[in-house]
Structure formats: C-alpha cells, structure tokens
Amino acid sequence: MHSPSRVDEHPVTSDRPAARLATRLAFLVAGFGIACWVPLVPFAKQRLGVDDGVLGMLLLCIGLGSVVAMAVTGVLSARYGSKPIIIAGALGLTAFLPLLTVANTPFTLGIALLAFGASLGSLDVAMNIHAVEVERAEARPLMSGFHALFSVGGFVGSTLMTFLLSVHVDTLASTLLCAALMLGAITIARSRLIETAAKHDGPLFVAPRGIVLLLAALAAITFLVEGALLDWSALLITGKGLVVAAQGGLGYMLFSIAMTAGRFGGDALTARIGDRSMMFWGGLLATAGFVVLLTAPIAPIAMAGFLLIGLGASNIVPVLFRRAGSQRAMPSALAVAAITTTGYAGILAGPAAVGFVANQVGLPGAFWLLAAMLCLVPCCARLVTATRSHADSA
C-alpha cells in the first residue's frame, strides 16, 4: 500500500510580524462572525414564526455546513495552501451574515445557515493550518495567542451586536456594519497571509491514522468539555442549590475568562516548560477543577472550580494543533483538518450526549464522566509529545 509522504511546505514570504498579524485577524474574524449571529436568533425565530423544534433544526444547519466544509478544506489547503481558503471563508462570513436577517422562510434561512456554517468551517480549518505554518516559521509557540484572539472576537462580536440591537438599530443595518468590520480586517490580512507551495507524491486524501487519531480524540474530549459547560453548567450549579437561576451563567463566564487569560499567557509558558508539561499539568489542573466543582459545598468554591477548568484546558487544544503540524503520519493540512472536524463534532454531539447520560445517572454523574475522560489528556501527554518540536526544545 502506498504511503503518503509529508507535505513539503515553503513559505514564500518572510515578513513574520505581518504573518502573525494576518493570522490573528483571521482568528478574530472567525470568533467575531459566529458571535454576531447568536443575538440574532430570537429575531429569526420571531420573523419566521417557527417553534423551538424547527428552530433547532435550522441551527443544526450551521454545524452541518461547518463539518462538511472542514473535511473538504483540509484537502483544498493541502493542495492550494491556506491563504485562498482563509480569504474565501472570511468573505463568506461577511456576505452571508446580512442574509441571515432577510431570509423569510425556514428553507431560505436553512440554506443561508448552511452557507454561513460552511464559511466558518472553512475559515476555522484554514486559519489553524496557517497558524501552524507561521509558528513553524518562527520556531516558537504562538498557537495559544492565536486561539485567544478567537475568544476576543467572540466577546467583541456578541457585545457589539447586542449593543446595536439594544439601541434599536435595524438587524440588517447591524449586520451590515459588522460585515464591514470583518471585510476591513480580512482586507488588512490579505496581503500579509503566507502563500504556501505544496508538493505531494502520494494520495491527496489520507484517512486519519496513528498519532493523528489520538490527537483528534483528545481534541474531541476537550471540545466536548467546553460544549458541556456551555449548555449544562448553569443547570448543574443551580440544581445543586449553589446559586439562584439568575446567576446560573456565572460559572461559564468565569470559565471563559480563565480560558482566554490562560491562552494569552500560554505561549510564554509553553516556551518555558514545553508541550509535554503543558498538556500534563493543564489536563491535571482541568480535571482537578471538575473535582472541585462537583464536590463544592458553597458557590465560591464551585466558581474556583470553573476557573481551574478554564486555566487548565486553555492550552490543550493549541498544543494538539501544534503536534498535528509536527507529526509525520500524514500531511499536516489534513491532520489539522481532522482535529478541527473531530473537535467541532465534539461540540455538536457533546451536549446531547451529556443530556442522555444525565437522564440515566443524573447531571453530576455525567460531569464525573467528563472528568474521567479528561484524565486521558495528562495520561497521553508523553505519547502525544514523543516527537520533539520547537516548543520542547525552546
């Protein structure tokens, strides 16, 4: 059986600060774009006059479009480089966001959401591939900082859109303004993105295998944890009587703040201690956070648990993406695509799976299962980082 060779990737440009800026802008646009849609959901439901069941099916279109596009993007990026995919994905977000406010039937909104999700999925994969390339060119950890910008984009996007809607700016006008901001950002990034020449002497598509399967599984677990905290943490702490219903979102808010802060400091810490220690201690800290959360007798201790989970989990995914770029089992573009797709599937399927398990053993029991799964991260840290990279030799 023919074994595919590794992709030989050679950055055409050498302007490292410019490439860093372009990558940060791509992550910022991705987080900003998806966050702009969230405040529009109630308006879409009211405009179409649909029930929660139909709305749920429509929202699933974003995930479906994203997953399909992610699988295709890995192949396209491996052949043509990440630059044109980043530009196309960002332009897609810019174009389709306003359309989400004018689609007046479930069918047309579903098609628009599919396209919006496909744009997001393409951008998500391509920007991570580009981040791997930029990080490799600089030979120092940068991935955590890039991912932090996605979180910042999400915060800015949701805040700006909520503000515009709260002062009674029309939904179409609000999305056009946000689309203009995204267009400006990607215009700045366009000339600064690295152009990659890729050469292949093996098949273009390679099924994930070897270490990439493990990387993808760990990414799925980490993303599953994040999705479960988003959808179920409020019910967990209110169900235990730790906080009142109005304060149920405090836990996820603290988790998000800790994760963003952890990623801003993650590159410097990784450069000091290496990928293996980052994965081991990060996974251990996040698991300990679950133990604190699930055994907390009072709210402040439970909130400390959310902080520990956020800090511990913050740099696990960046390490996994970096390892996807340094492994030799398959072309790095396809490996990054596999990890992104699997991780996103974890976000999509995770909350439903938690609900199913909670129905059998209770919500605390489901969260204990998440903690047990998260234990695999520190347990696999040595295996995942067996191949040395710049993060280990820094």
From TrEMBL:
Stretches that traverse the bilayer: 21-41, 53-78, 85-103, 109-132, 144-165, 171-189, 210-230, 242-266, 278-295, 301-321, 333-354, 366-385
Main location: membrane
GO molecular function: transmembrane transporter activity
Alphabetically ordered keywords of this record: Membrane, Transmembrane, Transmembrane helix
Membrane association type: Multi-pass membrane protein
Gene3D superfamilies: MFS general substrate transporter like domains (1.20.1250.20)
Residues annotated as signal peptide: none
Record's subcellular location: Membrane
The keyword Membrane belongs to this UniProt entry's keyword annotation: yes
InterPro entries, per the entry: MFS, MFS_trans_sf, MFS_Transporter
Key word Transmembrane helix present: yes
Residues in coiled coil: none
Any single Gene Ontology cellular-component annotation: membrane
Domain of life (superkingdom): Bacteria
Protein name: Putative MFS family arabinose efflux permease
Organism: Paraburkholderia rhizosphaerae
